[in-house]
Design goal:
Elements (H helix, E strand, L loop, with lengths): L16 E5 L9 E5 L2 E6 L50 H14 L6
Length: about 110
């Protein structure tokens, strides 16, 4: 599964991104993408590869960065900085996401009064 959300980042601008399952009950849950606390995209019936072993688990680098085909472009490396990276064993609520976004803005001095 590859999720592409056009116009997600603006050069030189801090952006808070959250990717979460919408529920913990289904085998292939819908995957939601949030930008700055707002839902901007939903991928129905999300999935992860079940037959591949992932050995290159780096932030900003895909396990498939060296794989190309006539049907897909090679994955690109992250060109930017990561301020806060978290992993959870549960789907995040919209309240969780909003609180995380506001926390980051406050800590970085970006919160508008």
């Amino acid at each position: 599964m590859r999720i592409v959300v056009p116009m997600m980042f603006k050069k030189g601008e801090w952006t808070h991104i959250t990717v979460t399952a919408l529920d913990a009950k289904s085998f292939r849950p819908d995957i939601a993408v949030y930008k700055n606390g707002q839902k901007v995209f939903v991928e129905p019936s999300g999935w992860l590869p079940q037959t591949d072993i992932t050995e290159k688990n780096y932030i900003g680098k895909s396990n498939w960065s060296d794989v190309t085909s006539q049907y897909a472009n090679k994955d690109e490396l992250l060109q930017g900085a990561v301020f806060d990276f978290r992993g959870y064993q549960r789907p995040l609520s919209e309240k969780d996401i909003q609180e995380s976004y506001e926390w980051g803005q406050g800590l970085l001095g970006l919160k508008k009064e």
